[in-house]
């Protein structure tokens, strides 16, 4: 933008007055304080569209301004200046360019630049089987384990996997970085991370979470266990949950359980109907048959064996004999020996 002669003269006069009066710069407004994940390690914050800067020129209050980075990544509202590139640059880099631009009109131009509002990053959203589903503003590099920690950790319903879906492109990619694709019309599948790999620090299992990401900790569906077990209850599905592991989780079978015929009621794939499976759990325990992988909403019923079955016959006879002796003892006359 070309500056008219009258404006140029005005600026020269203002500069002369500033040098003569040796005014001190006005203090910058206090920075807004963020909490938690938003306030740590953001000294090298890279600017983006929507961020708001406080620009102050030493001794020239008329040139002080509040400027927002526009959609093209520039500061285009500074008095008497052409647009200054700001996207993917630090406030110090922008400060130097503004000072250089004003140096054309002011002698020894001194400029301060402070970030007033950081609005260029969309929040990341974490939900599902976590204690506190929430949105988190991403002002610095944050990895998956930190965002999980900030959400309070996993709940008992966590099924074992985490899905990460990118919705925003990388605004300031590092040199040579090839960012993962962004979801468009559901064509990009989410990245799946196993919780076990994250906890074990497996390479690649703790990725960087980008602004705008959706992080879903998959919630497990229930499996119900009833009948002759120590603690009949519902449990949540885990990765590769087998019948043996599920029964162990409820304390195992009772002595009177019919382990040779455990009944599983299961929803047929793609329907609302149920089918019945009969499983020889006794053979599974002896490694004579393979274990059974369970599915969501399975209902496992462990029936009691017949009192006269081979597994319970001895116990039944002993119980009957004990009761007979006890009954006979109460019917016999009592004699006192002197």
Please provide a written account of the structure.
The protein has 338 residues and is of the alpha+beta class. The chain folds into 3 domains: 45-120, wza like domain (wza like fold); 124-218, Roll (Outer membrane lipoprotein wza fold like), CATH 3.10.560; 222-302, Outer membrane lipoprotein wza fold like (Roll), CATH 3.10.560. It has 7 helices and 17 strands. Strands 7-6-12-9-10 form a 5-stranded mixed sheet.
What is the β-strand count? 17
Classify the helix fraction into a percent range: 10-25%
User: How many domain units?
Assistant: 3
Q: Quick one: overall form?
A: rod-shaped
Strand content bin: 15-25%
Q: Helix segment count?
A: 7
CATH superfamily placement of the largest domain: Outer membrane lipoprotein wza domain like
Between the first and last Cα atoms, what is the distance in angstroms?
Answer: 130 Å
Rg: 36 Å
Q: Judging by the overall fold, what is the CATH architecture of the largest domain? A: Roll
Structural class estimated from helices and strands: alpha+beta
Please specify the SSE layout and strand pairing:
Blueprint: H1 5-21, E1 52-57, E2 65-68, E3 74-75, E4 84-85, H2 91-102, E5 111-117, E6 124-128, E7 134-136, E8 142-143, H3 144-150, E9 158-165, E10 191-194, H4 195-199, E11 208-209, E12 214-219, E13 222-227, E14 233-236, H5 243-249, E15 262-267, E16 274-279, H6 281-285, E17 299-302, H7 313-331
Parallel strand pairs: 6-12, 13-17
Antiparallel strand pairs: 1-2, 1-5, 3-4, 6-7, 8-11, 9-10, 9-12, 13-14, 15-16, 15-17
């Amino acid at each position: 933008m070309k500056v008219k002669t009258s404006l140029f003269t005005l600026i020269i006069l203002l500069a002369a007055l500033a040098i003569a009066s040796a005014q001190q710069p006005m203090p910058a407004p206090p920075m807004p304080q963020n909490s938690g994940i938003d306030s740590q390690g953001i000294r090298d914050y890279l600017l983006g569209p929507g961020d708001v800067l406080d620009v102050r020129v030493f001794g020239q209050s008329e040139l002080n301004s509040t400027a927002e980075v526009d959609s093209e990544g520039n500061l285009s509202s500074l008095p008497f200046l052409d647009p200054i590139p700001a996207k993917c640059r630090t406030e110090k880099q922008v400060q130097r360019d503004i000072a250089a631009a004003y140096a054309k009109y002011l002698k020894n131009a001194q400029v301060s630049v402070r970030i007033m509002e950081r609005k260029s990053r969309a929040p990341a959203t974490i939900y599902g089987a976590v204690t506190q589903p929430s949105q988190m503003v991403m002002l610095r590099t944050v990895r998956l384990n930190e965002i999980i920690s900030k959400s309070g950790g996993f709940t008992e319903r966590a099924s074992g996997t985490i899905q990460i879906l990118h919705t925003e492109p990388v605004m300031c990619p590092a040199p040579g970085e090839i960012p993962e694709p962004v979801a468009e019309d559901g064509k990009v599948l989410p990245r799946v991370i196993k919780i076990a790999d994250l906890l074990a620090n497996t390479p690649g299992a703790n990725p960087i979470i980008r602004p705008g990401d959706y992080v879903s900790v998959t919630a497990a569906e229930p499996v119900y266990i009833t009948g002759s077990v120590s603690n009949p209850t519902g449990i949540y599905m885990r990765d590769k949950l087998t019948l043996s592991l599920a029964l162990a989780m409820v304390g195992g079978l009772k002595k009177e359980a019919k382990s040779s015929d455990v009944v599983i009621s299961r929803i047929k794939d793609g329907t609302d109907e149920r089918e019945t499976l009969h499983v020889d759990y006794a053979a599974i325990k002896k490694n004579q048959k393979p274990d059974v992988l369970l599915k969501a909403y399975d209902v496992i019923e462990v029936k009691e064996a017949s009192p006269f079955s081979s597994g319970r016959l001895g116990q039944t006879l002993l119980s009957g004999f004990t009761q007979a002796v006890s009954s006979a003892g109460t019917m016999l006359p009592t004699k006192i020996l002197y």
